[in-house]
Amino acid sequence: MVWECVKELVNFAALSRQRIFIFGISIVIAVFVIRLFQLQIINYDENVERSSGNSIKAIEQIPLRGVFYDRNMELLAQNSPTYSIRITPSEYDTSDNSILEAALDLDRGTIKNILKKNRIYSRHIPIRIKRGVDIEAISWIEENFENLNGVDYIIEMQRTYPGGVNGAHLFGFSKEITPSQLKKDSFYVPGDLTGYTGIEKTYEKVLRGIKGYTYILVDSKRREVGRYKEGKNDVTSVKGKDLVLGIDAKIQKIAETELAGKSGAVVAVEPETGEILALASAPSYDLNMFSYRTPREYLEQLAKDKLKPQYNRATMSAHPPGSTFKILCALAALDLGVIDENTTLYCGGGYTFGRFFKCHGAHGSINVVQAIEKSCNSFFYQLIFKIKLDRLKEYATQFYLGKKFQSDFKEEVAGLIPNSRYYEKIYGPDWPRGILVSLGIGQGEISTTPLQLAFFTALVANNGKSHLPHIVKGFLDEHKKLHVNNSAPLNINIKEDIFKIVKEGMYLVVNGAGTASNVRLPNIKVAGKTGTAQNPHGKDHSWFVGFAPFEKPKIAVCVIVENAGYGATYAAPIARKMIETYLETDSVKTLPKTTEFTSGRY
Question: The whole model's pTM is what?
Fold first, then answer.
């Protein structure tokens, strides 16, 4: 009896364990079914997106960069196709380095160094190994594609310049982005190009466009097997905006040609708008050499050149303006009322203040118009004491002399217009007042850039009214509609009659008994002023500033030829050619019809 009871209990326990086991299995199966339903049905879209990185490869589509037109819609800088070789580190076998380097004509160890430099980034990001690859190398890549895991090529665009304008210091160039720049802007990936100098840099975000993406299905070995969803999810790249510059290609070419073999700069400005009509610096360099990877030999050549071809003399070389500065002194004195158009000062061949300061002639008693015409030093030696140094500084600042414009010029220096505090720091409160004598004729510590003097001349020509100088007129949208760069307007608060007096003197410099008679043109009235700036390190610098037509100015020009001599001899003839070409040619094309003004720079 007892045994039977024990047997029943054992059977019951076994049955219970079986039921518990079956129940447990049922629970597990139910959990799996529910989870599968959730993954496959409820969260299907979400999980497809999460897993797409394992089966879908996004191929970046680099947008076309915006191009440059001149003011007459002549194409200055365009995009031309070129091949670039890339390596995806996660797929690449480094034992192929030597073979690939030989095929691409790269120095031994180049690929290793490039991959090492980029190892801080994801191994799935393609790294550019060489840009500007010829068709023979691409053919070799195609023939050996199956044996070159992780190696591919893409078609990119490089800058070419069909208009015959070099524009090295004007356009600038793009360069491969640096690691520090990558941290600041998520738009870029390693190997991308970004504007490095000139307007390529200033307008980078306008020019670069918007990237697109093509999605490709790949297998477990990352081999392409087809388009993802037949391309329905692809994102089309958007071309960067095309820029219309204020530059006139005709006179830009003249400026570059005339400066060849010299050191100096030319800047031309449209007086009414402040648009830059020409900007050139010499010596220059070949922008085509910077379209893709620049040869090391060429970079070394530029670095060793004592004349510094990459140095923008138009905006960064600050020199004493010489006699061109007399125009500002005349304006300041007339506006302050310390002289009028009839006031005369005596020139007996020089002026004594502590010592004798020579003039280049003995002009007798002359007024301000005659003093400008004959460039009388004695007149302006005396005038500076009537104006006073600090007031002169105020007038110079109003005209942006010794001051940065901070427009679309990234490479720019301020120059210097000293005031009394400047000399007090050097000499103390009893600084020698004889210093002022040289300042009156644009010598001494005064320094200005060609850009500043060009714009100053434009302001004088247009009676103190203009806009801040700028290179870019505007940009074209996808409908070829021009959006104009509405730069800040300026109005110097000096009466028009005062400008008229000074401009009369400038007119006589060219058309009277002045120093620039070689600038005269038979059908165009030109006004101007020469300058010869003393240079303690060699020959004097040759300056000329001028504008035309005299009645209604359309162009103001500043030319400097360094270490050349007299302004009338070397700088003035360059300005003459530019003025004549700009005003006598009738080849102005029509800009896009619809314009829309925007505030500031896009």
Answer: 0.84
